[in-house]
Amino acid sequence: MKLPQTVIRIAFGSQSSLAAINSDRLETYNFRNQALFLPARTEVVREPLGPMAEALVIGMAPEFAHKIWTAEFDGKPYQERFVIGSARPTQMALAKTMRSRILSGKGLTALQMESFATLFLSDWAEDFKATSEPQTRHALAFSSILARLDDYIDAHLERDLGLADLAAVAECSPSYFLRAFKRATGQTPHRYLMECRVRRARLMLAQTTTPLVEIAYACGFASQSHMTDVFSSSLGTTPGRYRKENKSG
Fold first, then answer.
1. Which helix (H) or strand (E) holds 64?
2. Burial grade of 230 (CB within 10 A; 0-12, 13-18, 19 or more)
3. What is the CA radius of gyration of the chain?
4. Region of 87 on the Ramachandran plot (φ > 0 left; ψ -120 to 50 alpha; else beta)
5. Collapsing DSSP states into helix, strand and coil, what is residue 80?
6. Cα dihedral sign for 180, 77, 38, 61?
7. Among 2, 3, 56, 142, which residue has the fewest nearby CB atoms (within 10 Å)?
8. What is the number of other CB atoms lying within 10 angstroms of the CB of residue 249?
9. How many CB atoms lie within 10 A of CB 247?
10. Residue range 17-52, pLDDT digits in tens
11. Both ends of the chain: CA-CA distance in Å?
């Protein structure tokens, strides 16, 4: 069958299978922690040999992957193809983090999903690379971009901000943005954004009588319960208790 989506699959454990990928010939693949990247429209026939390993499977629109590659290579040519092998340490770390959040019931925000998918894709960039120049001007100037990012986040905090939005403000590719942002701040964009939301909520709780649910949406939280969860994790208290203890006037 031809895949309708671009697919990333990371297996947790050993996996053996017979597979034909864009081919009429079945081959045996034996990997521990198999990492598989399949572009959309790849023709795949696959038959497991033995028990299936637990795996994380990410499907995405081909347009999303194309946008990442275009930004990653700054518009230069690249050759997208399927990749199969053992997961790299960075890929396993990402997969385990996603798995942990899913199994814990916490789920993943849109920004986290975009970030994880972008990091997976950028980790395979060398496999498709034709020519690509390092974005040295961003490496030198990223710290000066943080003020512009803060202004943008502050002005759009009520929105469901995505990785592409923040990278566009920084004028760099999403994958480069993730790496440079972590180096500059020591945090992921998602963690930083949550701190901005909490900071705005604290001000509104202390200085206004706005209902909690309205504050949650004004600060970009998915719901009042989401705001409560983030507050409890960050400050060790609930929004209601924070308001009682810090109400001005």
1. helix 62-72
2. buried
3. 21
4. beta
5. coil
6. positive
7. 2
8. 4
9. 12
10. 778 887 777 777 777 788 888 888 888 888 877 778
11. 67
**Residues 159-177: tens digit of each pLDDT:** 988 888 888 888 778 877 8
Which helix (H) or strand (E) segment holds residue 225: the answer is helix 224-235
What's the DSSP call for residue 54?
Answer: E
pLDDT-derived band at 136 (thresholds 50, 70, 90) equals: very low
3-state helix, strand, coil in the chain (%, to 5): 55, 20, 30
Residue 35 to residue 15: CA distance in whole angstroms:
10
Q: How many CB atoms are located within 10 Å of the residue 245 CB? A: 10
Q: The tokens of 244 are what? A: 């009682």
Dihedral sign for Cα 218, 221, 223, 227, please.
Answer: negative
**Side chain identity at 168, as an amino acid letter?**
A
What would the pLDDT profile of 205-249 be if each residue is shown by its tens digit?
A: 999 999 999 999 999 998 999 999 988 888 888 999 999 888 765
pTM equals: 0.57
Residue with tokens 């960075």: 90
Say which DSSP state 129 is in. B
Closest to 200 in 3D by CA, of 183, 220, 184: 220
